[in-house]
Amino acid sequence: MSALTASQVSLLPDSLDAGEFAFGGPVDKKVVLKRLKLTAVSVGGQTNVLSADALGFSQLVACGNFFDDTNNVVVPAVVDPVTDTIVFGAGSFSGGAAAGDVSAVSGYITVVGAPKLR
């Protein structure tokens, strides 16, 4: 297992117009929502991270839950504001899931943040 790389991330759908939504403001201050497909992942804990950089952001604001399409399960997910990564809950929604890695051939997540400037 290892940290997520940019090559494992793609917009969903794969056109920029349909997969990324801007929330106004100057170019260097805007916030965007991206619907992403992650492939060949074994990440989500505090060691094997989903970093802002790998997801195409300079800073993360929020995220939805991760849908593991391989195993047909929804995995709780939150942004860790200290490390600027997304952390998965390895377990169920009830009882407070501990952070941990999730392995999936493919899965989907919606992320909000400041985009990386080119």
What does the model show?
By secondary structure, the chain is mainly beta. It has a single domain, classed as Immunoglobulin-like (Sandwich). Helix content is 3%, strand content 47%. The chain is built from one helix and ten strands. Strands 1, 2, 3, 5, 6, 7 and 10 form a seven-stranded antiparallel beta sheet that branches. Strands 4-9-8 form a three-stranded antiparallel beta sheet, with no helix packed on it. The longest helix has 4 residues, at 16-19. It is globular and about 40 Å long. 26% of the residues are buried. The model has no long low-confidence stretch (mean pLDDT 76).
Give the secondary structure arrangement, pairings included:
Layout: E1 9-11, H1 16-19, E2 20-22, E3 32-43, E4 50-51, E5 57-63, E6 66-68, E7 73-75, E8 77-80, E9 85-88, E10 102-115
Antiparallel strand pairs: 1-3, 2-3, 3-10, 4-9, 5-10, 6-7, 6-10, 8-9
Are there runs of 5+ residues with pLDDT below 50, and where? none
Please tell me the CATH architecture by its name: Sandwich
**Number of domains in the coordinates?**
1
Radius of gyration: 14 Å
- According to CATH, the fold-level topology is Immunoglobulin-like
What would you say about this model in short?
This protein has 118 residues and is mostly beta strands.
Structural descriptors:
three-stranded antiparallel β-sheet; mainly beta; 118 residues; Immunoglobulin-like
